[in-house]
């Protein structure tokens, strides 16, 4: 497995040539866990955001002092490096604690963290991922530290495993296109054609996608088509896309950058957060959420052997707080896991909310969270997708 690290905008970026799932990570998932995930999916699907203020306890003064004494922490994350570097800089400004950001696709990054932990190399203090199944299994192995941040009380009960992991935000995924690389007719097709718009032969050689082996968000996206909504879509649908010979990425982040730059006309798996980031940078990017719309939870947990355990706890508290989550709204269009934190731009018709092509998703697909096929650690959908796409 070839891996390298390269500096990027004040953080660290992980590149990898891994294309598999999570080697050596096969644990049985209990019936109790399946029921817990089912409850999570049902509650999260509704997602009523009231915006009402919730009481929020401040972090302990002794914890703040101890965290400042440590002075730094290392954050393994799956979100775009520039967005995350800006987000964590708000934490640094508030507490004077620097954050070393290491970015990679969820599964390869999580595999790397597991390997490091198992051989006693405790590099990451906090780990972010889009697959709660893996976090739960790592906790069973004793690799996830238990800590209940005061701010965690404000996270929706369906979006946390108290003391273990907390959802930072919820991300819808749709279709994105570069408005300068499509005709008015194609623009209309994308906006009105639903998911079938991706199968049109006109996209041959002009589109891109990402392997479901890259991480939890890509896997949950593909799972809707080959798993939960198989009767509606299934292998025949994916085969139509494969026939168009899309460029396949091992990570979504560079795919997004390249559609923004005009190297591709259209891409799938378009997350609201990353599209919002490209829009704010001035990229000629548009996106739409066909129904049903896959969505994923981005969660984070503390490493049990964190070298900077106090800084990790303080960061977990800040990330789950209304202040920390509100910082995301300055950067992207994610939905908060808190009821009291909403994006003011939506009410004020700011940024992409003012555009006539934009519409919120109306039918979020989170049913995979209680689907035994999804929580199967063998992740059979990866092999099926690879076969369809000739990988």
TrEMBL record:
Gene3D superfamilies from the entry? Answer: Periplasmic binding protein-like II (3.40.190.10)
Name of the protein in its database record? Extracellular solute-binding protein
Pfam families in the record, alphabetically? SBP_bac_11
Its organism's taxonomic lineage begins at: Bacteria, Pseudomonadati, Pseudomonadota, Alphaproteobacteria, Hyphomicrobiales
Ranges for the region named Disordered are 1-25
Q: Give GO terms: molecular function aspect only.
A: thiamine binding; thiamine pyrophosphate binding
Q: Tell whether Signal is among the UniProt keywords.
A: yes
Keyword match Signal: yes
Q: Which InterPro entries match?
A: TAT_signal (IPR006311)
Q: Which organism is it from?
A: Rhizobium jaguaris
């Amino acid at each position: 497995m070839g891996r390298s690290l390269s500096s990027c905008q004040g953080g660290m970026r992980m590149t990898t040539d891994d294309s598999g799932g999570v080697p050596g990570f096969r644990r049985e998932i209990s019936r109790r866990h399946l029921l817990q995930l089912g409850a999570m999916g049902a509650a999260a699907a509704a997602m009523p955001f009231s915006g009402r203020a919730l009481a929020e306890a401040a972090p302990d003064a002794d914890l703040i002092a101890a965290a400042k004494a440590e002075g730094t922490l290392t954050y393994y994350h799956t979100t775009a490096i520039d967005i995350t570097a800006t987000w964590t800089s708000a934490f640094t400004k508030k507490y004077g604690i620097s954050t070393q950001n290491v970015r990679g696709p969820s599964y390869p990054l999580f595999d790397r963290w597991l390997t490091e932990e198992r051989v006693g190399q405790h590099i990451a203090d906090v780990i972010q991922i889009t697959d709660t199944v893996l976090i739960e299994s790592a906790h069973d192995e004793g690799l996830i530290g238990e800590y209940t941040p005061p701010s965690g009380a404000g996270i929706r009960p369906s979006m946390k495993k108290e003391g273990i992991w907390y959802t930072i935000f919820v991300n819808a995924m749709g279709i994105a296109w570069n408005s300068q690389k499509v005709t008015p007719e194609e623009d209309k097709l994308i906006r009105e054609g639903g998911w079938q718009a991706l199968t049109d032969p006109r996209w041959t050689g002009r589109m891109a996608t990402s392997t479901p082996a890259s991480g939890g968000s890509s896997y949950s996206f593909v799972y809707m088509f080959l798993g939960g909504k198989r009767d509606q879509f299934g292998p025949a649908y994916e085969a139509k896309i494969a026939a168009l010979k899309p460029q396949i990425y091992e990570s979504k982040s560079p795919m997004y950058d390249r559609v923004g730059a005009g190297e591709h006309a259209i891409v799938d798996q378009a997350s609201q957060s990353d599209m919002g980031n490209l829009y704010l940078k001035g990229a000629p990017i548009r996106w739409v959420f066909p129904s049903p719309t896959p969505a994923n939870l981005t969660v984070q947990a503390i490493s049990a052997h964190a070298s900077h355990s106090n800084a990790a706890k303080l960061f977990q508290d800040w990330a789950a707080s209304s202040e920390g989550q509100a910082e995301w709204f300055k950067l992207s269009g994610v939905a908060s896991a808190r009821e009291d934190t909403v994006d003011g731009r939506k009410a004020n018709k700011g940024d992409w909310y003012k555009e006539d092509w934009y519409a919120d998703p109306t039918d979020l697909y989170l049913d995979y969270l209680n689907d035994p096929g999804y929580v199967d650690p063998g992740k059979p959908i990866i092999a099926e997708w690879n076969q369809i796409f000739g990988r």
